[in-house]
Amino acid sequence: MTELTHITKTYRQLRLIAGWTLIAAPLLIIAVAYITEPTIKAALSDYYFAEPKPGLVRTLFTGFLILVGGILIAYRGFDNNDNWIHNAAGAFAVSVAIFPEHCGSADGLYCAPGLLSSLHLPSAVLVFVFAAWAVYYCGGPNLKGQLKPKELSTLRHARMASIGAMALGVVLYVTRPLLSAYIQEFKVTTLTVELFGFFGFAAYWLVMTRVIDKANHRIREQIKLSKSGGRAIAASLESKAAATAEPGLVGPDEEGLSEIP
Predict the structure, then answer these.
(1) How many structural domains are present in the chain?
(2) Which of 62, 123, 150, 222 could disulfide-link 95, Cβ–Cβ 3.0 to 4.6 Å?
(3) 245 assigned to some structural domain
(4) Residue 79 resides in a domain
């Protein structure tokens, strides 16, 4: 396995872990807390104080944010802009975990004073702002320049769906007083916004991974054809004794082919 293959597989695993964690972890936190107390909290941050003593639920909550934040910080984008957008989202995700919300006025929570709780809300908002920005930027021109039209179309539709899901959560929350009584029974809370945001961001990661996988398969096939073509030309030249074959004889459009990390 070449060094580039190792790097490609590493980035693929990072994207998959980020995507599935953004889906599974919030649902797991809600489910585990529901077993102890059969109620749904108004916000994911409320689960930090869901137990009389810090236990499994708080560990899952902080672990989820730190894991995703660490991946986003470790992730190196396709250009400098892509890199710092993801890094910023990761830093704010970690900030949400280590600076719990102020819960002095909350009901039914096992509240305890937190460290710099005033940083919690702005950090939470900025996580979603930078996550939406990352989806909108979508790897930038460096990634798009390596994709074929069909692959670009798939990525474009995934970007629209992800941003749409994120926006839908916000719209539902803002317009909840205008919704029908039947819909209001579902209690459109901050948790709704968060879940739409997490799931939308997850979809972006998973679809982008799939698109890159397909592009890399195409690139590997092109490289194989290029190499086999070069060997065939070299063999033909040798058999005719017309000239000495040049090493690495490939077409000018294929010289720079390499897998997308």
Answers:
(1) 1
(2) 123
(3) no
(4) yes
The residue with greater pLDDT, 183 or 127, is 127
* Nearest partner of 128 among 64, 65, 194, judged by Cα: 194
**Residue 95 belongs to a domain:** yes
Task: Answer for the pair 227, 245: CB distance below 8 angstroms, yes or no.
Answer: no
- Which range, 157-161, 233-237, 241-245, has the best average confidence (pLDDT)? 157-161
CA dist 244 → 63, 108, 239 (Å): 61, 83, 10
Q: Taking 60 as the threshold, does the pLDDT of residue 14 lie above it? A: yes
Q: Which domain holds residue 151?
A: 3-240
Q: Does residue 138 have a pLDDT over 50? A: yes
Among residues 103, 115, 88, which one has the least CA distance to residue 43? 103
* Residue 77: other Cβ atoms inside 10 A: 19
The C-alpha atoms of residue 117 and residue 14 are separated, in whole angstroms, by 30
